[in-house]
Predict the structure.
Amino acid sequence: MDAFVLLTLISVIGAAALFLALAVYLRLIVRELQAIGGTPTSFLAKIRFGLRAIETATVFCTSGVCDLVDRIDRYARGVRPIGGGPVASDLVRCTGDTDQRA
């Protein structure tokens, strides 16, 4: 056999072995990830459910926070903190239905 043919065969066999190993390890990784978050009773699903519950329970707080910031801002216009620190309106800017942290 010619040296180039032999090197080509070795390269093809090596590439096939690489892709086979990649496929095997990807299947193992997918199996582990399915155990973590693939079922409705998994840890990831429970965390996701808790986050949705918190989001649902606190969705009404946004307007209250904006009202509070507006009230504090009205009082803070006449009074500045000692040392020139930030006031509430410098830290939170309410626009529409959401609050944005500065």
Notes: Confidence is low (pLDDT under 50) at residues 97-102. Residues 91 and 102 are 5 Å apart (CA to CA).
